[in-house]
Amino acid sequence: MPSEPIVVTRFGDYTPCITKNQRQVKCFVSDDKPGSPNQGSIEIEPKIIIWGKRQADQVKQFQVNPTGLAHEFTCSKTEAGWFHY
């Protein structure tokens, strides 16, 4: 699954992070609402591998290499894409 080139969520515009190959925390903007992620919780997440606006904490399997094996990915709390533990 290819990444989307432009991703904007309620927690920021992640397009600069996509184009500069940066971690999602560099583009994160807190909404300061109770229960929302904060910078610390985003810093400890692995780097997003597949960019795209999704539902936070959703888990899905993707085939990301030619071997055909699917791997489990989790959507970032930023809602900006998927990472693999």
Structural class: alpha+beta
> What is the makeup of the main sheet?
4 strands, antiparallel
Mean pLDDT: 93
* DSSP summary: helix tally: 2
What is the strand arrangement across the widest sheet? 3-6-5-4
* N/C terminus separation: 17 Å
What shape does the CA trace take?
globular
- Please estimate the helix content: 10-25%
**Proportion in β-strands:** 15-25%
How many strands in all? 6
The poorly predicted ranges are none
Report the order of strands and helices.
Answer: EEHHEEEE
**Structural Rg:** 13 Å
Describe the secondary structure blueprint for this structure.
Elements: E1 8-9, E2 12-13, H1 15-20, H2 39-43, E3 50-51, E4 59-63, E5 70-75, E6 81-83
Antiparallel strand pairs: 1-2, 3-6, 4-5, 5-6
Task: Summarize the model shown.
This protein has helices at residues 15-20, 39-43; strands at 8-9, 12-13, 50-51, 59-63, 70-75, 81-83. With 85 residues, the chain is of the alpha+beta class.
